[in-house]
Write a structure and sequence with these properties.
With about 250 residues, the protein is α+β, with helices and mostly antiparallel strands. The protein contains eight helices and ten strands. The relative contact order is 0.17.
């Protein structure tokens, strides 16, 4: 009998693996709708939806291995990173998705959320004030009008699977929506700046590196407190706090 593996679990949702089937438990019906609809229309490899009975979504495992993990060196080839960039370009050039998750936040909503989060990080003593202030300044470059694109919304390298130099699947679409294309590029390369050139080589032109760096700061500032409160360690080597320190 296959064992049950807890892939991730916190107060918002949980993902279990049983053999070649992933069971995603999510009480947020809207978030599940976003994920299913996005996978149905995304022009890149996505997992097969096996069945759905709220609050559980069953999807088939994709082949290959993850492009990497935050805080760990990636063993994937340069060509694989470039293939990830090419897949992102294909996604961003596609028609906008029918539903939108957190990727669809307005510029004003994002700026307000960032201001509140920065204040909490300092007030609660989670990060030094100078580190927060510097990265808030860097993040400002991301807070500009953008042309909405079909974005994944949470394209961590652990969500991109490869076999050799080929992309075999992109998973976890619950944050998909109409967002800033450069946010996806920044999320993919967060903590792996050494592979940014590889990704851009596959993605193509029209990439503002200052905005990507701004998104690294912004995403990390927004993530630190949430990660701590849900049992993760953003101060582990190579993770969010190190990303923030690198901007100093």
């Amino acid at each position: 009998m296959d064992e049950v593996e807890v892939v991730v679990a916190h107060s918002e949702r949980a993902t279990l693996r049983v053999g070649d089937v992933f069971l995603k438990v999510d009480p947020d019906q809207t978030r599940m709708d976003v994920e299913v609809d996005a996978m149905a229309v995304a022009p890149v490899p996505t997992p097969e939806v096996l069945w759905r009975k709220s609050p559980v979504l069953a999807i088939a495992a994709v082949t290959g291995t993850a492009l990497g993990r935050l805080g760990e060196p990636s063993t994937a080839s340069t060509a694989a990173w470039a293939a990830a960039g090419a897949a992102l370009r294909k996604l961003h050039d596609a028609p906008l998705p029918p539903r939108s998750g957190r990727a669809g936040r307005s510029l004003d909503e994002l700026a307000a959320e960032l201001d509140v989060e920065c204040e909490r990080l300092v007030t609660n003593g989670l990060l030094p004030a100078d580190l927060v202030t510097r990265n808030r300044q860097v993040a400002e470059a991301a807070l500009r009008p953008w042309t909405p694109a079909f974005t994944h919304g949470d394209l961590q390298i652990a969500h991109v699977f490869v076999d050799g130099d080929e992309i075999t699947g992109i998973i976890d679409w619950s944050e998909a929506g109409q967002g800033d294309a450069l946010y996806d590029l920044a999320t993919l390369t967060l903590g792996h700046e050494e592979h940014l050139d590889d990704v851009i080589a596959g993605y193509g032109t029209d990439v503002d590196l200052d905005v990507i760096r701004a998104w690294w700061s912004l995403r990390s500032l927004l993530g630190v407190r949430w990660l701590i409160e849900h049992g993760f360690d953003p101060s582990a080597p190579g993770c969010e706090v190190d990303v923030l320190k690198s901007r100093m």
